[in-house]
Protein backbone atom coordinates (compact mmCIF):
# COMPACT_ATOMS: atom_id res chain seq x y z
CA UNK A 1 0.00 0.00 0.00
CA UNK A 2 1.39 3.36 -1.03
CA UNK A 3 0.97 6.46 1.09
CA UNK A 4 1.06 9.89 -0.42
CA UNK A 5 2.46 12.95 1.30
CA UNK A 6 -1.06 14.14 2.18
CA UNK A 7 -1.92 10.74 3.70
CA UNK A 8 1.12 11.00 5.97
CA UNK A 9 0.20 14.59 6.78
CA UNK A 10 -3.27 13.59 7.97
CA UNK A 11 -1.84 10.70 9.99
CA UNK A 12 0.54 13.17 11.62
CA UNK A 13 -2.32 15.53 12.47
CA UNK A 14 -4.34 12.66 13.92
CA UNK A 15 -1.49 11.49 16.14
CA UNK A 16 -0.78 15.07 17.20
CA UNK A 17 -4.38 15.53 18.28
CA UNK A 18 -4.13 12.40 20.45
CA UNK A 19 -0.92 13.49 22.15
CA UNK A 20 -2.51 15.93 24.68
CA UNK A 21 -5.07 13.28 25.66
CA UNK A 22 -2.32 10.71 26.16
CA UNK A 23 -0.23 13.15 28.18
CA UNK A 24 -3.19 13.99 30.45
CA UNK A 25 -3.87 10.32 31.06
CA UNK A 26 -0.23 9.68 31.82
CA UNK A 27 -0.15 12.57 34.29
CA UNK A 28 -3.38 11.39 35.92
CA UNK A 29 -1.96 7.88 36.29
CA UNK A 30 1.19 9.29 37.93
CA UNK A 31 -0.95 11.31 40.34
CA UNK A 32 -3.02 8.28 41.31
CA UNK A 33 0.12 6.19 41.90
CA UNK A 34 1.66 8.94 44.04
CA UNK A 35 -1.53 9.30 46.11
CA UNK A 36 -1.78 5.55 46.63
CA UNK A 37 1.84 5.37 47.71
CA UNK A 38 1.36 8.21 50.19
CA UNK A 39 -1.81 6.62 51.59
CA UNK A 40 -0.07 3.26 52.05
CA UNK A 41 2.79 4.95 53.88
CA UNK A 42 0.48 6.72 56.37
CA UNK A 43 -2.54 4.38 56.36
CA UNK A 44 -4.78 7.37 55.71
CA UNK A 45 -7.16 8.96 53.23
CA UNK A 46 -5.34 11.65 51.27
CA UNK A 47 -7.31 14.61 49.90
CA UNK A 48 -5.65 17.26 47.74
CA UNK A 49 -7.03 20.79 47.53
CA UNK A 50 -4.70 22.65 45.20
CA UNK A 51 -5.41 26.00 43.57
CA UNK A 52 -3.09 28.19 41.59
CA UNK A 53 -3.62 31.86 42.38
CA UNK A 54 -1.82 33.03 39.25
CA UNK A 55 -4.24 33.97 36.49
CA UNK A 56 -4.60 31.68 33.53
CA UNK A 57 -5.52 32.94 30.11
CA UNK A 58 -8.39 31.33 28.24
CA UNK A 59 -9.47 33.21 25.12
CA UNK A 60 -8.11 36.35 26.72
CA UNK A 61 -10.24 36.01 29.86
CA UNK A 62 -8.24 35.88 33.12
CA UNK A 63 -9.20 32.96 35.37
CA UNK A 64 -8.14 32.26 38.95
CA UNK A 65 -9.05 29.30 41.09
CA UNK A 66 -10.28 29.24 44.67
CA UNK A 67 -12.32 27.12 47.11
CA UNK A 68 -15.71 26.71 45.45
CA UNK A 69 -18.98 24.89 46.04
CA UNK A 70 -17.80 22.21 43.61
CA UNK A 71 -14.70 21.72 45.78
CA UNK A 72 -16.79 21.36 48.92
CA UNK A 73 -19.01 18.75 47.23
CA UNK A 74 -15.99 16.68 46.25
CA UNK A 75 -14.22 16.99 49.61
CA UNK A 76 -17.37 16.17 51.57
CA UNK A 77 -17.86 13.08 49.42
CA UNK A 78 -14.26 11.99 50.08
CA UNK A 79 -14.79 12.44 53.83
CA UNK A 80 -18.04 10.45 53.71
CA UNK A 81 -16.22 7.61 51.94
CA UNK A 82 -13.57 7.52 54.70
CA UNK A 83 -14.23 5.00 57.52
CA UNK A 84 -14.35 6.56 61.02
CA UNK A 85 -11.14 4.81 62.10
CA UNK A 86 -9.08 6.03 59.10
CA UNK A 87 -7.13 9.31 59.51
CA UNK A 88 -7.45 12.07 56.90
CA UNK A 89 -4.47 13.86 55.37
CA UNK A 90 -5.41 17.10 53.59
CA UNK A 91 -2.78 18.69 51.34
CA UNK A 92 -3.54 22.40 50.98
CA UNK A 93 -2.30 24.95 48.47
CA UNK A 94 -4.92 27.68 48.14
CA UNK A 95 -5.49 31.44 48.41
CA UNK A 96 -8.91 30.84 50.02
CA UNK A 97 -12.37 31.05 48.55
CA UNK A 98 -16.10 31.05 49.32
CA UNK A 99 -17.04 31.21 53.00
CA UNK A 100 -19.92 28.75 52.60
CA UNK A 101 -17.76 26.11 50.90
CA UNK A 102 -14.93 26.60 53.40
CA UNK A 103 -17.19 26.25 56.44
CA UNK A 104 -18.82 23.11 55.03
CA UNK A 105 -15.44 21.44 54.59
CA UNK A 106 -14.17 22.61 57.99
CA UNK A 107 -17.24 21.29 59.83
CA UNK A 108 -16.90 17.92 58.10
CA UNK A 109 -13.24 17.74 59.14
CA UNK A 110 -13.87 18.40 62.83
CA UNK A 111 -16.65 15.80 62.81
CA UNK A 112 -14.35 13.07 61.52
CA UNK A 113 -13.56 10.81 64.52
CA UNK A 114 -9.94 10.05 63.58
CA UNK A 115 -6.99 12.40 63.35
CA UNK A 116 -7.00 15.06 60.63
CA UNK A 117 -3.63 16.35 59.44
CA UNK A 118 -3.15 19.31 57.09
CA UNK A 119 0.03 19.59 55.00
CA UNK A 120 0.98 23.04 53.69
CA UNK A 121 3.94 23.06 51.29
CA UNK A 122 3.65 26.73 50.28
CA UNK A 123 0.62 28.69 51.48
CA UNK A 124 -2.94 28.32 52.76
CA UNK A 125 -4.45 31.79 53.07
CA UNK A 126 -7.87 32.98 54.27
CA UNK A 127 -10.24 30.02 53.77
CA UNK A 128 -7.21 27.74 53.54
CA UNK A 129 -6.20 28.84 57.04
CA UNK A 130 -9.75 28.12 58.21
CA UNK A 131 -9.36 24.53 56.99
CA UNK A 132 -6.00 24.28 58.73
CA UNK A 133 -7.64 25.38 61.99
CA UNK A 134 -10.06 22.46 61.61
CA UNK A 135 -7.20 19.95 61.68
CA UNK A 136 -5.55 18.24 64.65
CA UNK A 137 -2.04 18.87 63.33
CA UNK A 138 -0.66 21.37 60.80
CA UNK A 139 2.53 20.24 59.09
CA UNK A 140 4.23 23.05 57.18
CA UNK A 141 7.32 23.72 55.16
CA UNK A 142 9.63 26.00 57.12
CA UNK A 143 8.88 28.82 54.66
CA UNK A 144 5.15 28.17 54.20
CA UNK A 145 2.57 30.65 55.52
CA UNK A 146 -0.99 30.90 56.76
CA UNK A 147 -3.14 34.05 56.68
CA UNK A 148 -5.77 36.00 58.63
CA UNK A 149 -9.42 34.92 58.37
CA UNK A 150 -11.00 38.33 59.02
CA UNK A 151 -14.13 38.81 56.85
CA UNK A 152 -14.11 40.99 53.75
CA UNK A 153 -17.19 42.85 52.51
CA UNK A 154 -16.72 43.45 48.83
CA UNK A 155 -13.29 45.01 48.43
CA UNK A 156 -13.08 46.29 52.01
CA UNK A 157 -12.07 44.63 55.28
CA UNK A 158 -14.96 44.50 57.74
CA UNK A 159 -12.73 45.83 60.52
CA UNK A 160 -11.84 48.93 58.46
CA UNK A 161 -15.50 49.72 57.75
CA UNK A 162 -16.26 49.59 61.47
CA UNK A 163 -13.30 51.87 62.20
CA UNK A 164 -14.68 54.51 59.83
CA UNK A 165 -17.98 54.58 61.74
CA UNK A 166 -16.16 54.76 65.07
CA UNK A 167 -13.86 57.61 64.00
CA UNK A 168 -16.36 59.89 62.20
CA UNK A 169 -19.38 61.71 63.63
CA UNK A 170 -22.60 59.83 62.86
CA UNK A 171 -23.97 62.84 60.97
CA UNK A 172 -21.09 62.74 58.49
CA UNK A 173 -21.64 59.08 57.55
CA UNK A 174 -23.95 58.07 54.71
CA UNK A 175 -26.59 55.36 55.14
CA UNK A 176 -24.79 52.84 52.95
CA UNK A 177 -21.65 53.00 55.10
CA UNK A 178 -23.75 52.57 58.26
CA UNK A 179 -25.40 49.50 56.74
CA UNK A 180 -21.98 48.12 55.75
CA UNK A 181 -20.73 48.69 59.30
CA UNK A 182 -23.69 46.78 60.72
CA UNK A 183 -23.01 43.90 58.34
CA UNK A 184 -19.31 44.05 59.25
CA UNK A 185 -20.01 43.63 62.96
CA UNK A 186 -22.22 40.64 62.21
CA UNK A 187 -19.63 39.12 59.88
CA UNK A 188 -16.83 39.42 62.43
CA UNK A 189 -19.02 37.94 65.18
CA UNK A 190 -19.98 35.03 62.91
CA UNK A 191 -16.38 34.29 61.94
CA UNK A 192 -15.19 34.49 65.54
CA UNK A 193 -17.92 32.11 66.67
CA UNK A 194 -17.02 29.62 63.96
CA UNK A 195 -13.26 29.82 64.59
CA UNK A 196 -13.92 29.29 68.31
CA UNK A 197 -15.84 26.12 67.39
CA UNK A 198 -12.89 24.88 65.35
CA UNK A 199 -10.30 25.63 68.02
CA UNK A 200 -12.31 23.98 70.81
CA UNK A 201 -12.64 20.75 68.83
CA UNK A 202 -11.63 17.82 71.06
CA UNK A 203 -12.06 14.90 68.62
CA UNK A 204 -10.01 12.73 68.95
CA UNK A 205 -8.36 14.96 71.57
CA UNK A 206 -8.05 18.62 72.58
CA UNK A 207 -5.65 20.28 70.11
CA UNK A 208 -5.46 23.88 71.41
CA UNK A 209 -4.70 24.86 74.98
CA UNK A 210 -7.80 26.67 76.35
CA UNK A 211 -5.76 29.73 77.33
CA UNK A 212 -4.66 30.20 73.68
CA UNK A 213 -8.09 30.04 72.03
CA UNK A 214 -9.09 33.69 72.46
CA UNK A 215 -5.57 34.87 71.63
CA UNK A 216 -5.68 33.05 68.29
CA UNK A 217 -9.17 34.38 67.53
CA UNK A 218 -8.08 37.94 68.24
CA UNK A 219 -4.96 37.62 66.09
CA UNK A 220 -6.69 36.12 63.05
CA UNK A 221 -10.18 37.66 62.93
CA UNK A 222 -10.06 41.26 64.12
CA UNK A 223 -8.24 42.86 61.20
CA UNK A 224 -5.15 43.90 63.13
CA UNK A 225 -3.17 43.21 59.94
CA UNK A 226 -4.06 43.20 56.26
CA UNK A 227 -5.91 40.21 54.83
CA UNK A 228 -2.89 39.10 52.79
CA UNK A 229 -0.53 39.25 55.80
CA UNK A 230 1.68 36.11 55.86
CA UNK A 231 1.51 34.29 59.18
CA UNK A 232 4.82 32.46 59.40
CA UNK A 233 5.57 29.15 61.08
CA UNK A 234 7.18 30.97 64.00
CA UNK A 235 4.24 33.32 64.51
CA UNK A 236 1.66 30.53 64.22
CA UNK A 237 3.57 28.44 66.76
CA UNK A 238 3.77 31.38 69.15
CA UNK A 239 -0.02 31.78 68.90
CA UNK A 240 -0.43 28.19 70.09
CA UNK A 241 -1.44 26.46 66.86
CA UNK A 242 -0.42 22.77 66.56
CA UNK A 243 2.39 23.36 64.05
CA UNK A 244 4.97 20.77 63.00
CA UNK A 245 7.76 21.89 60.67
CA UNK A 246 9.10 19.59 57.98
CA UNK A 247 7.25 17.94 55.11
CA UNK A 248 8.03 14.50 53.70
CA UNK A 249 9.66 14.52 50.28
CA UNK A 250 6.59 12.80 48.82
CA UNK A 251 4.53 15.99 49.37
CA UNK A 252 6.88 18.00 47.16
CA UNK A 253 6.80 15.23 44.56
CA UNK A 254 2.99 15.40 44.56
CA UNK A 255 3.04 19.17 44.08
CA UNK A 256 5.25 18.75 41.02
CA UNK A 257 2.46 16.71 39.44
CA UNK A 258 0.14 19.75 39.64
CA UNK A 259 2.13 22.39 37.75
CA UNK A 260 0.88 25.81 36.83
CA UNK A 261 -0.01 25.83 33.11
CA UNK A 262 2.67 27.80 31.35
CA UNK A 263 2.13 30.40 28.69
CA UNK A 264 5.27 31.68 27.00
CA UNK A 265 8.60 31.61 28.80
CA UNK A 266 8.76 30.40 32.43
CA UNK A 267 9.03 33.11 35.08
CA UNK A 268 11.24 30.88 37.27
CA UNK A 269 13.88 28.53 35.93
CA UNK A 270 16.72 26.53 37.51
CA UNK A 271 18.59 23.25 37.09
CA UNK A 272 16.38 20.72 38.94
CA UNK A 273 19.09 18.80 40.80
CA UNK A 274 20.82 19.08 44.18
CA UNK A 275 24.40 20.24 43.92
CA UNK A 276 25.71 18.34 46.94
CA UNK A 277 29.49 18.59 46.93
CA UNK A 278 29.45 19.96 43.37
CA UNK A 279 28.46 23.45 44.40
CA UNK A 280 29.47 26.13 41.92
CA UNK A 281 32.37 28.18 43.26
CA UNK A 282 31.58 31.72 44.33
CA UNK A 283 33.52 34.64 42.86
CA UNK A 284 36.07 36.16 45.20
CA UNK A 285 34.84 39.39 46.83
CA UNK A 286 36.09 42.50 45.12
CA UNK A 287 35.19 45.06 47.77
CA UNK A 288 33.67 48.48 47.14
CA UNK A 289 33.98 50.39 44.95
CA UNK A 290 34.54 47.85 42.19
CA UNK A 291 37.55 48.52 39.97
CA UNK A 292 36.86 50.27 36.71
CA UNK A 293 37.09 47.69 33.87
CA UNK A 294 38.56 50.35 31.61
CA UNK A 295 41.63 50.81 33.81
TrEMBL record:
Residues 263-295 are annotated as: Disordered. Residues 282-295 have a biased composition (Pro residues). Pfam families: SDH_protease (PF01972). InterPro entries: ClpP/crotonase-like_dom_sf, Pept_S49_ser-pept_pro. NCBIfam families: Clp_like_SDH (NF047768). This is ClpP class periplasmic serine protease. It comes from Gloeocapsopsis crepidinum LEGE 06123.
Amino acid sequence: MNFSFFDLFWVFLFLSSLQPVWQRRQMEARRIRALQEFERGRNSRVILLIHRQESLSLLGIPISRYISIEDSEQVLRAIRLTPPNVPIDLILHTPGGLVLATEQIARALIRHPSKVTVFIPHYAMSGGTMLALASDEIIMDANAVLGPVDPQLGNFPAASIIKVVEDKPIGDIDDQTLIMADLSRKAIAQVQRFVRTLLKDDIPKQKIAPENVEKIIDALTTGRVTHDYPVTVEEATEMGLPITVGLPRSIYNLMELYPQPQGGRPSVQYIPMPYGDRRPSLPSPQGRPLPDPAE
